[in-house]
Write a sequence for this structure.
């Protein structure tokens, strides 16, 4: 049955296509039909269903079953440039932008046989924690229609949780893969900086941005990471290191692994549910044979203010290219300067304008030393904290977020409370480390809560293994009833 197809994990779908129990057309049709019935969630910005079905048909005519994602349909965050298919970054200013090139990460995915179904909603230029800054409207969390799906990869988390796509990719600058994964009961991995190419991804903050997989389970996440992580000459920050076949080398044997618990993550006002979840997580890790060690990351407190200087600074520079001349939307003006001003005032939303103003301010002469340079120095201290901790431990366990998913509209008028949601995720980006969020429990209302496992640089295999072992013990079940399907 069709509905059964969309319930399958990526690994099951790959297996069923390889053994010819299912065709790519059957699988693609099932996900397309379910996506069509799920418009209310507003996960898609651009649908490409007819093309997807065509490609599936072509795949079935000449199937290459040696590929890693043979004929698997998939929708991706609308921050990845897709050749000949509109790419908006959730912004009015790119409303009509059709790239003439493909991002490396998506190209890697198509090279392994997957098929693009469409582009998923996200916060404008990936700035946000709730998907409410998108020009294309907010996204609903399939757990409950009044809840945000997290952000900025909110369309991605919602689509995976609602089974509109078997897997997806998001981007994570300060938490945008891990936080939405946590809010929707799904798994999300932010790889080491330099692991996945940034070529063809609409830039937000270039020293922090990373693409990564989002999935229903750890194994699927490992498989997708193995596909997307490649060295790429087109990205000068891409790193040439030996990449594992993460899914093949996945093991639940984590006996003797040392897992650090940073005391600074016990933040003031943290809800008891989060504290309890963390304690449970520690017990699960012990059950798996891990050794728990208390550690300190003394500069954690400075991570958020540092991030909210560095990220806007880089954003203000990256976004200077949107001037109405080369890309997308243009407003008419009386002269060139007037046209620039009107284009940028009308084309960018409020959050993006706020970031551009903060970024321009902290980079301006007179304030550069006081803010930007200072932030860079603190960033180094945060990185040093992790380096010190990793002399004693193999990985670090923390909650993914300081709360479960909040209500749509709850934080839109209070940017600072929105920014506070990133408290556990941003240090990882500042230090360039890999981190994975796995669903680990529910709060009193039945909303999912996630745990984060942070690794050493390039040690994705280790955190995937720990996540894989813990996932089995946790045995998480997502409470999703298809309320949006009429
Ligand atoms: N919520 C953070 C921000 O708004 C992180 C976003 C991201 O990771 N893209 O900047």
């Amino acid at each position: 049955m069709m509905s059964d197809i969309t319930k399958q994990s990526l690994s099951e779908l790959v297996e069923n296509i390889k053994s010819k129990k299912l065709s790519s057309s059957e699988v693609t049709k099932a996900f397309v039909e379910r996506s069509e019935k799920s418009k209310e969630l507003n996960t898609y910005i651009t649908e490409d269903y007819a093309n997807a079905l065509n490609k599936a048909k072509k795949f079935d005519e000449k199937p290459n079953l040696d590929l890693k994602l043979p004929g698997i349909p998939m929708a991706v965050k609308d921050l990845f440039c897709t050749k000949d298919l509109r790419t908006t970054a959730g912004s009015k200013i790119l409303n009509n932008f059709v790239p003439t090139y493909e991002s490396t990460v998506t190209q890697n995915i198509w090279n392994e046989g997957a098929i693009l179904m469409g582009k998923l909603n996200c916060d404008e230029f990936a700035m946000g924690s709730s998907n409410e800054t998108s020009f294309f409207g907010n996204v609903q969390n399939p757990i409950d229609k009044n809840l945000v799906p997290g952000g900025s990869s909110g369309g991605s988390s919602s689509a995976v949780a609602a089974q509109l796509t078997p897997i997806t990719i998001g981007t994570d600058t300060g938490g945008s893969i891990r936080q939405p994964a946590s809010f929707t009961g799904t798994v999300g991995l932010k790889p080491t900086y330099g692991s996945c190419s940034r070529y063809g991804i609409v830039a937000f903050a270039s020293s922090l941005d990373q693409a990564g997989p989002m999935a229903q389970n750890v194994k699927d996440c490992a498989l997708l990471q193995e596909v997307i992580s490649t060295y790429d000459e087109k990205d000068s920050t891409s790193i040439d290191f030996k990449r594992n076949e993460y899914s093949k080398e996945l093991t639940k044997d984590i006996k003797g692994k040392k897992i650090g618990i940073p005391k600074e993550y016990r933040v003031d006002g943290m809800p008891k549910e989060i504290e309890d979840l963390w304690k449970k997580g520690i017990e699960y890790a012990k059950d798996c044979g891990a050794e728990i060690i208390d550690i300190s990351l003394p500069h954690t407190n400075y991570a958020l203010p540092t991030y909210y200087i560095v990220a806007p600074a880089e954003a203000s520079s990256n976004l200077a290219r949107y001037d109405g001349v080369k890309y997308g939307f243009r407003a008419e003006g009386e002269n060139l300067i007037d046209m620039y001003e009107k284009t940028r005032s009308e084309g960018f939303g409020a959050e993006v304008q706020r970031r551009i103003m903060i970024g321009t301010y902290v980079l301006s002469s007179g304030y550069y030393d006081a803010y930007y340079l200072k932030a860079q120095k603190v960033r180094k201290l945060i990185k040093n904290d992790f380096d010190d901790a990793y002399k004693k431990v193999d990985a670090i366990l923390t909650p993914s977020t300081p709360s479960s998913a909040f209500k749509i509209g709850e934080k839109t008028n209070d940017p600072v409370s929105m920014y506070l949601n990133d408290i556990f995720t941003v240090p990882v980006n500042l230090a360039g480390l890999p981190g994975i969020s796995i669903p680990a429990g529910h709060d009193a209302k039945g909303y999912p809560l996630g745990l984060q496992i942070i690794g050493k640089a390039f040690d994705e295999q280790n955190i995937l293994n720990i996540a894989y072992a813990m996932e089995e013990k946790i045995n998480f079940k997502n409470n999703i009833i298809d309320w949006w399907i009429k």
About this structure: The pocket of glutamine is lined by residues 126-129, 152, 172-176, 204, 311, 422 (CB under 6 Å). The mean pLDDT is 97. The longest strand covers residues 435-442.
